[in-house]
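Memo subject: From amino acid sequence to discrete backbone structure tokens
Action wanted: Derive the backbone structure tokens from the amino acid sequence.
How to read it: Take the token row as a discrete description of the fold.
Attached in line: The record itself begins immediately under this heading.
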Amino acid sequence: MHDSYTGLEMESFIVTADFEIDGNPPGQNLAAHFRPLTDHRWEWKLVTPITVLERGALTVSIRDREGTLNRIERGFVIRSPAP
């Protein structure tokens, strides 16, 4: 997340997944699980790692104090390592 020096509207921070994560159902706002790090990154340490996922998408959005909405969607697959 970045704000181009205007500040972020943290109440607009939304993270959704189209799959279950740590018992949270698809479509639920997951933003409250993230914690800021000292170097302008955010993290969520999962209790239960995702070891296999046929197909998934994460969507993250946030607005800055000037009203600009930043939104990104990423799709991915997680496969088990070969034996």
Remarks:
- The chain is about 0% helix and 45% strand.
- The radius of gyration is 15 Å.
